[in-house]
Amino acid sequence: MPKKERIQQMFDAIAPSYDRLNHVMSLNVDKVWRKHALNEIVDGTPQQILDVACGTGDSTISMAAAAAPGSRVTGVDISEGMMALVMEKARKAGVAERIALQVADGENLPYPDGSFHRTACAFGIRNFEHKDLGLKEFYRVLTPGGKAVILELSVPQNRLLRGCYDLYFLHLLPWIGGKVSGNKAAYQYLPASVHAFPAPAAFCAMMEAAGFRNVRCKTLTLGLCRVFVGEK
């Protein structure tokens, strides 16, 4: 089975417990990380925003709530199971009318060139089979002067912190995730995908190769997460 189909099926399977596990296992720090990304995305003017690999919509909803009146946030994901939860959450947050959803592949986005002022991706690009193609698509659908804002988990560089991180992320997390979701393999894949993600300098170079300028990276929570920003 191709990697993309495996990823899709895995996220469909863990969708019902994904939000609860995500917040509990990050001690809710993921909400703080999303706010850092949000500050790079909204600018007080009406915006067309694309949230790639939107999952269950936490970032999609926060963008829709924070963006100026007249804005629209389009969420795309290959997992229908994850996206099935978005609109109910959006209605509870009072922003459903600002959100549109479409099942789509981040490596082959179904939108014309220059369709969006921002492309965003939170904790999703590490799952792309071809990250370079995804970055080129992020760039292509941006308007001139637009920005891509990518939030991704990262491996800390400090040796002591790295040891604690590996103990939790490689051993405790799969056990907890497996108990709650019934899918231990998914929570073994997730930390492995973080370890396999390019180092910050290498990923910045990938963004530049895709065409982005003024690429920068901000380290969050001692290197547990990073925000990458690039301009068109």
Structure explained in plain terms:
It is a single chain. By secondary structure, this protein is α/β, with parallel strands linked by helices. The protein has one domain: 3-Layer(aba) Sandwich (Rossmann fold). 49% of the residues lie in helices and 22% in strands. It contains 9 helices and 7 strands, in the order ααβαβααββαβαααββ. It has a 7-stranded mixed beta sheet with strand order 3-2-1-4-5-7-6, sandwiched between helices. The chain is globular, with a radius of gyration of 17 Å. The chain starts with a helix and ends with a strand.
List keywords for this structure.
232 residues; alpha/beta; Rossmann fold; seven-stranded mixed beta sheet; 9 helices; 49% helix; globular
